């Protein structure tokens, strides 16, 4: 089929909305998605393991979400005020999330983590924050410091992954190696009095926490009266219904959510201790600790309706067993292929997440992952894309949804085997 669309990629810097830096011959335009598949305007079918960066946890156009959204749209799309679906959703989130005594909605994960940082600074009266090398907390200035560092300078100094971040901001962010409790403790000991919070992805990208790491961070932050913020934008409603804090049994002071929570509709949320969240109460405007919090489209009823429908499906018995089973099958399949072909590689992930890195040594943090052969990684990802696996060709994680099945996993593995044969 010939495209009815003018493929004017030059309209977009980098030829996409971002991060899909595909060579011209692989660039395409999507027309629709259904279940675990997306289709381009030429009629090509892809198994989607990008899932809108993990948002579409039930798969595309899930009937329960379509129905809920359709019903809500007729009743209005945004009020910027407390409304029925958003209230119902807040009640459900407070039930589901251990740290959540109160909640404020935002429109994206970036907004949610941004407000988490602001709350922490306001509450503690301190300005510095600690994050882990290679973690992503959204597109704001803190979120992209030492996201993809190349110079690997000594800790705790950050390396900006984006231009346009002021020196002042960089001086207020400390970087620690993920999974290295001793080094993190040293940094916290040195800067503790100035630290407002530790913000972390409990499962960083696809790298799981080593035994005792999260518990250790929780203990140190409590001792030093530093707030612990879990960025659950990826782990939330993915590793378990109650997120990473349920899965790993470590409860932070605040947690940011997004992505899967909206089932593919825009949403963000920051939740946690009441004494912290209450700082954004307008009646204390003008006081020193007052937190300005505003977001025009936050709590909008369409996203809330989509979210409630998503949570309704995720709550059904067996949903998380299935997500974990699919993830395990994919990771085990990759491990077998690497073993069969004698390829030096690591298969990372937990739950419905998977990442393959071509390096001999175990990956426990950014620097051990940085040693991986990125050129081969990129060829692998492009090879998969060419053969009908829709994924981020920068070689980050693969996401699975409840719409994926064993046939999809089998096909992904078959194609992977074929592509790897050509590379190794
Ligand atoms: C862990 C984490 N936090 C925050 C964000 C930002 O979320 P959003 O893209 O919705 O702003 C992302 C997005 O990939 C993420 O992976």
Which shape, going by the Cα principal axes? globular
Ranges with pLDDT <50 over ≥5 residues?
none
> SSE order in H/E notation?
EEEHHHEHEHEHEHEHEEHHHEEHHEEH
Mean pLDDT: 96
List the ions, cofactors and other small molecules found in this model: pyridoxal-5'-phosphate
Round the Cα radius of gyration to an integer and report it.
21 Å
Strand order of the largest sheet: 4-10-9-8-7-5-6
Structural class label: alpha/beta
Number of strands: 14
Report strand %.
Answer: 5-15%
Give the fraction of residues assigned to helices: 25-40%
| Number of helical segments with 4 or more residues | 14
Instruction: Specify the biggest β-sheet.
Output: 7 strands, mixed
Rounded to the nearest angstrom, the distance between the terminal CA atoms is: 35 Å
Describe the structure.
It is built from 14 helices and 14 strands. The model has no long low-confidence stretch (mean pLDDT 96). The radius of gyration is 21 Å and the shape is globular. The protein has helices at residues 51-54, 63-73, 84-96, 109-124, 167-171, 181-191, 213-223, 243-247, 274-277, 301-314, 319-341, 366-370, 374-386, 406-423, and strands at 30-34, 37-40, 45-48, 102-106, 128-132, 173-176, 195-200, 227-231, 254-257, 268-272, 346-348, 353-357, 389-390, 398-399. Helix 2 (63-73) runs antiparallel to helix 10 and helix 3 (84-96) packs parallel to helix 10 (301-314). The protein has a seven-stranded mixed β-sheet, sandwiched between helices. Helix content is 36%, strand content 14%. The chain starts with 29 loop residues before the first strand and ends with a helix. With 424 residues, the protein is α/β, with parallel strands linked by helices. The structure holds pyridoxal-5'-phosphate. The site of pyridoxal-5'-phosphate (PLP) has 13 residues, from helix 4. Pyridoxal-5'-phosphate (PLP) binds at residues 53, 108-110, 113, 136-138, 201, 231, 233-234, 258.
């Amino acid at each position: 089929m010939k495209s009815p669309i003018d493929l004017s990629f030059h309209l977009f810097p980098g030829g996409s909305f971002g991060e899909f830096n595909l060579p011209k011959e692989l660039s395409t335009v999507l027309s629709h998605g259904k279940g675990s598949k997306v289709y381009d305007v030429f009629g090509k079918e892809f198994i989607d393991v990008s899932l809108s960066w993990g948002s579409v946890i039930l798969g595309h156009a899930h009937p329960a979400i379509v129905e809920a959204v359709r019903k809500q749209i007729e009743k209005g799309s945004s009020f910027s005020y407390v409304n029925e679906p958003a209230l119902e959703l807040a009640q459900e989130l407070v039930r589901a999330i251990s740290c959540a005594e109160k909640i404020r909605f935002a429109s994206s994960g970036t907004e949610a983590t941004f407000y988490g940082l602001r709350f922490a600074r306001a509450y503690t009266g301190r300005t510095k924050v600690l994050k882990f090398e290679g973690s992503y907390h959204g597109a704001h200035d803190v979120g992209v410091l030492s996201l993809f560092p190349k110079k690997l300078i000594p800790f705790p100094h950050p390396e900006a992954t984006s231009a346009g971040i002021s020196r002042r901001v960089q001086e207020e962010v400390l970087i620690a190696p993920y999974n290295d409790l001793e080094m993190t403790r040293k940094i916290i000991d040195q800067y503790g009095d100035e630290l407002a919070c530790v913000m972390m992805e409990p499962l960083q990208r696809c790298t799981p926490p080593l035994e005792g790491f999260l518990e250790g961070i929780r203990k140190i932050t409590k001792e030093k009266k530093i707030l612990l913020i879990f960025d659950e934008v990826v782990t939330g409603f993915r590793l378990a219904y109650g997120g990473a804090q349920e899965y790993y049994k470590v409860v932070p002071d605040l947690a940011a959510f997004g992505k899967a929570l909206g089932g593919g509709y825009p949403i963000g949320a920051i939740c946690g201790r009441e004494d912290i969240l209450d700082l954004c109460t307008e009646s204390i405007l003008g006081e020193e600790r007052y937190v300005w919090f505003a977001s025009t489209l936050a709590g909008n009823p369409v996203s809330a309706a989509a979210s409630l429908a998503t949570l309704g499906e995720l709550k059904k018995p067996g949903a998380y067993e299935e997500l974990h089973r699919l993830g395990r099958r994919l990771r085990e399949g990759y491990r077998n292929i690497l073993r069969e072909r004698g390829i030096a590689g690591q298969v990372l992930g937990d739950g419905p997440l998977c990442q393959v890195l071509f390096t001999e040594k175990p990956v426990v943090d950014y620097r051990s992952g940085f040693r991986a052969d990125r050129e081969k990684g990129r060829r692998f990802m492009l090879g998969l894309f060419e053969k009908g696996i829709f994924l981020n060709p920068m070689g980050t994680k693969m996401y699975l949804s409840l719409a994926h099945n064993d046939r999809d996993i089998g096909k992904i593995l078959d194609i992977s085997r074929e592509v790897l044969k050509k590379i190794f």
